[in-house]
Amino acid sequence: MPEHVNSGIIVSGGSFTARDVAVGDHARIDHSGSIQMFAQPLADLRNAIDSFAGPPATKEALTAAQDKLTEELEAPTPGKHGLLDRLSSLTSLAGSAAAVVQAATTLAQLISAVL
Fold this sequence. Notes:
Layout: H1 39-50, H2 56-73, H3 80-94, H4 98-114
Helix pairs in contact: 1-2, 1-4, 2-3, 3-4
């Protein structure tokens, strides 16, 4: 009698929590389209930074931070904690610029929920 081979996944007892699961022959997870869900919040953040009326050096630093954030989100497997740390730094840099802080907070909430 041939031996049965399980090509699936078995979870016994406890709990199972995962962001993504790929199971079976040739299974894979593709995050290449995930940047699309962040497109509008990223655009809102870019607009808020573009409208920033504070010191030019701060605006340049905010723009650079936002560029780096976008680059990290486009990575095959974006790191949630690194992204949230970057947004926290960006928010601190923005100071009392409410539009930038609000846009960064909205993006951070989405990242926390999705990644």
